[in-house]
Design a protein that fits this description.
The chain is an alpha+beta fold. 26% of the residues lie in helices and 22% in strands. It has 3 domains: 189 residues, RNA polymerase II/Efflux pump adaptor protein, barrel-sandwich hybrid domain (OB fold (Dihydrolipoamide Acetyltransferase, E2P), Beta Barrel); 69 residues, E3-binding domain (Dihydrolipoamide Transferase, Irregular); 218 residues, 2-Layer Sandwich (Chloramphenicol Acetyltransferase), CATH 3.30.559.
């Protein structure tokens, strides 16, 4: 019987490492070509990793939670004759560039808030059984779950497959044989079938997944299952975020009474590690300048309310995004890049608009391709989809790269203004503060108006102070009076 070693491939964009989030298989399982065998987390997204061959899992070489370098062996397969033949030479798993990111086909989108704080819900997505990474060959249809090769109980966890110690061998010998009529239980089955976002939601809501029966495909536990279980508890009146904050409050209150560890250490990895590296590189490479403008946005708020009343998708964020796109067309230096290697300034004729999104994994800035060609309603829908995908760990490397200018909505957290750091390779980023009802000069008198502060950070190598000020003034003029756009386009 031939043996196939599978190394962690480059999952796209030159990523050098990934974290094993969860194994979907265990030692002894019979898998088919392209069957999802694991979820791995890169610095940008959670990716479903398909099997490059058909065969039997003989060893798993990495524990869930461990970080693995690209090119490191993670799975060993036993190939029975020609059953495990690969679809082509490109399917070799020993190569570090065996595939590119296919996105997280298994993560449930779940409910979230868009950048204006509006609650949104997305239907659960069925697990994609035949997700294909480029280089692994075509998907293979399978009408039923693959059967498992009988094995001892001691071989059902990845840790048991990593190394066999004498003590472990003794446990294998002493273990009682499994009933022939019952299939062995994998670690995934033991923890119940669901996805990482749903597990986090269950943890936030205090729901025990082992007590639930999944209503999703093949019995998978969905977000709705968790929410239904949470609603059955009379005390569960908080949102997931509020519940998590409430759970930590007693610890915070007793911090000085010695109820918490004096130090807590968390490994720096995944999105947090990538974000830190990017921010340091940006802060110490591009000379940042930030300009501020406080404006009356009452008419924008009224416009959004009227559009929503007519059933048209709109939000303050999408109006700001549209105003930014119009401003970029008038001031293209804001949509450019400093190419140090070529000693050139690159001005883009398109706008890939980045939207900063706070996710459970850290800050992510996916971008809308060709945002300048979108209508207001299209921008609203696209921004909502972008944020939901990012929070559900479904953002792909393609959506996280190639941005030309960005927006960050710090107002959703109740913040008035800030000095945002540029995304590496971009010339500008616009921060929108909270919309506050406050006294303001209006037609020579004082009235209560909706007021917002805009903060524009830009790379002073690419954008002069005058150019930044004129761009910010144009955006502010549109938000102050949306009809002003007629004089600009």
């Amino acid at each position: 019987m031939a043996v196939k070693e599978f190394a962690l491939p480059d999952l796209g964009e030159g990523l050098t490492e990934s974290e094993i989030v969860e194994w979907h298989v265990a030692v002894g399982d019979l898998v088919t070509l392209n069957q999802p065998i694991a979820e791995v987390e890169t610095a940008k997204a959670i990716v479903s990793l398909p099997s490059p061959v058909a065969g039997i899992i003989s060893a798993l070489h990495a524990e869930p939670g461990s970080t693995v370098q690209v090119g490191t062996r993670i799975v060993t397969f036993e190939l029975d004759g020609g059953a495990g033949a690969e679809s082509g030479p490109e399917a070799s798993s020993a190569s570090a560039d065996a595939g590119t990111d296919a996105g997280d086909a298994n993560a449930n989108a779940g409910g979230a808030k868009d950048s204006d704080g509006v609650a949104t819900t997305v239907a659960e997505a069925a697990p994609e059984r035949n997700a294909v990474l480029v280089g692994y060959g075509p998907a293979v249809e399978s009408g039923k779950r693959p059967t498992r090769k009988p094995r001892s109980a001691a071989a059902t966890t990845p840790s048991a497959a990593l190394a066999a110690t004498p003590a472990a061998d003794a446990e294998v010998v002493a273990a009682a044989p499994e009933p022939a009529s019952e299939p062995a239980v994998t670690p995934t089955d033991a923890r119940t079938k669901t996805t990482p976002p749903v597990r986090k939601l269950a943890a936030d809501r205090g729901v025990d997944l082992t007590q639930l029966s999944g209503t999703g495909p093949e019995g998978i536990i969905t977000r709705d299952d968790v929410l239904s279980a949470a609603e059955q508890s009379p005390d569960d009146t908080q949102s997931g975020e509020d519940a998590a904050a409430g759970a930590s409050a007693p610890q915070t209150a007793g911090a000085f009474a010695g109820t918490r560890p004096r130090e807590t250490r968390t490994p720096i990895k995944s999105v947090r590690k990538a974000t830190a590296a990017a921010m340091v590189a940006s802060a110490f490479t591009a000379p940042h300048v930030t300009e501020f403008l406080t404006i009356d946005v009452t008419r924008t708020v009224e416009l959004v309310a009227k559009l929503k009343a007519k059933g048209t998708a709109a939000s303050v964020l999408s109006v700001v995004a549209k105003a930014l796109c119009i401003g970029v067309a008038r001031h293209p230096s804001l949509n450019s890049r400093w190419d140090a290697e070529a000693n050139e300034i690159v001005e883009f004729g398109y706008i890939n608009l980045g939207i900063a999104v706070a996710t459970p994994r850290g800050l992510m800035v996916p971008n809308l391709k060709d945002a300048g060609t979108m209508s207001l309603a299209e921008l609203t829908d696209a921004i909502g989809d972008l944020a939901r995908n990012a929070r559900a760990s479904k953002a792909t490397p393609a959506s996280l790269n190639g941005g030309t200018i960005s927006i960050t909505n710090v107002g959703v957290f109740g913040i008035d203004a800030g000095t945002p750091i540029l995304n590496p390779g971009e010339a500008a980023i616009l921060a929108m503060g909270a919309v506050r009802r406050m006294p303001w000069e209006h037609h020579g008198d004082i009235a209560l108006r909706d007021v917002m502060t805009l903060s524009l950070s830009f790379d002073h190598r690419l954008v002069d102070g005058e150019q930044g000020a004129r761009f910010l003034t144009d955006v502010g003029s549109i938000l102050n009076d949306p009809g002003t756009v007629l004089t600009m386009v």
